[in-house]
Amino acid sequence: MVVGDFPIELDTLVVGSGPGGYVAAIRAAQTGQKVTIVEKGAIGGVCLNVGCIPSKALIEAGHRAEHAQGDDELGIKTENVSVDFSKVQEWKGSVVNKLTSGVEGLLKGNKVDIVGGEVYFVDKNTVKVMDEKNSQTYTFKNCIIATGSHPIELPTFKYSDRVLDSTGALNLKEVPKKLVVIGGGYVGTELGSAYANFGTEVTILEGLKDILGGFEKQMSALVKKKLKSKGATIVTEAMAQGVEETKDGVKVTYEAKGKKETVEADYVLVTVGRKPNTDELGLEQVGIEMDDKGLVKIDEQCRTNVDNIFAIGDIVDGPPLAHKASYEGKIAAEAIAGENAVIDYNAIPAVVFSDPELATVGYSEEGAKEAGYDVKASKFPFAANGRALSLNASDGFMKLITRKEDGLIVGAQIAGPNASDMISELGLAIEAGMTAEDLALTIHAHPTLGEITMEAAEVAMGTPIHIVK
Ligand SMILES: Cc1cc2nc3c(=O)[nH]c(=O)nc-3n(C[C@H](O)[C@H](O)[C@H](O)COP(=O)(O)OP(=O)(O)OC[C@H]3O[C@@H](n4cnc5c(N)ncnc54)[C@H](O)[C@@H]3O)c2cc1C
């Protein structure tokens, strides 16, 4: 303790204000806890500042730029479409500001104290919070750690003005003429698609056999087809080896099919995964157990092996997604309040805001079989839905995974327009233990994409109306 650093006593301490931390803080306050949240950066964490929200804003702007080019098929012709990218960035920034200041207001409205600074653990009831000038000791009864993650840096691709991580790619001041994306996961594919819509010549280098590894082949195939139609090049089984920065760009070397290749671009975006922010927190001082990936081990209430310390979000196992972090935040807050909340990961949706959008919830057909379910997959194409046709966006399908014995819905996959919104109904169906019959008997408004859900359920029951059995 430094001279004059008198410890301040806290009830519940939340470390990090991303979608895990701020949601945990609000829920903890709602249960009557006196909450302090400490954030070393900007309120809202990665998600609101440099992740979900700005990326979706950029993707939307990209779609609008693409649509503005007109559509021969619909007889819409336009001329001289131009993009003022600084305006796009300004608008994106305003969306982020509205949300982050809204979250700050919500925290204050719930009487959560907000402290700026970096947390370092001293023991199981004590932290130091440091900013540039000061260090203050706090003691706490309970703590929820939600410190998130950061992009992995490859040793041969040191980040710079031309070698970008996702934050760098989101904040470009100009639309690149050419962009190389290393890593065809969801972040690389989303940002690559967004820039392709602005007219950038995009090359995606993916080390594995396919982009969007976690998704079924038929789903990623649709995204690849669309990306290629926008002039993108996708090289799979390509091992990026190094980058040379030139005066106004980069030369990226990679190996594919045993051959060394080079591709030149204005920028290279490296999105090869993220690392949990757990190694500079002093967790070893407290004896918190971690796995070999640096993820904190937790029980079904998000409690670490130290019983008054909880961990949530990107620093624990499972898909690194904002809604999963928020869900865990509520569980941890309620567990501290003595409630009987436990994690149930059965129905965590995952979405890629690509073109078309991909979404999944629950089991895939293969995953369900591996888990011992006797299931069948029932597919309904967007091309047989009136609304999809009237949107001129009929590429895609919905697949329902149901248990053979009783039609219980255990999973769903969607590739198509608005998949990101449509997946919620299926998450609810899984959560509520619904069967295909329940969905088939639910009247869906016409003409909507939602009818695809009803029709996929009818396929499962053997009674589809708009496709021949
Ligand atoms: C480009 C991009 C797009 C994404 N798109 C989506 C999407 O569409 N949907 C989705 O679900 N997910 C998306 N994600 C993932 C999502 O952003 C993360 O899963 C989510 O932000 C994790 O939340 P968190 O609360 O665990 O951590 P974070 O949001 O990372 O927040 C952690 C916070 O803790 C703070 N912190 C760290 N260490 C300390 C310390 N020692 N002391 C004090 N504060 C500290 C950090 O400054 C940060 O603000 C995206 C990510 C990226 C990069």
TrEMBL record:
Key word Transcription present: no
EC number(s) on file: 1.8.1.4
Cofactor(s) this protein cannot do without: FAD
Catalyzed reactions per annotation: N(6)-[(R)-dihydrolipoyl]-L-lysyl-[protein] + NAD(+) = N(6)-[(R)-lipoyl]-L-lysyl-[protein] + NADH + H(+)
Annotated GO CC locations: cytoplasm
Cofactor: how bound: Binds 1 FAD per subunit.
Location relative to the cell: Cytoplasm
Family the entry assigns: Belongs to the class-I pyridine nucleotide-disulfide oxidoreductase family.
Protein name (Swiss-Prot/TrEMBL): Dihydrolipoyl dehydrogenase
Upper taxonomic lineage: Bacteria, Bacillati, Bacillota, Bacilli, Bacillales
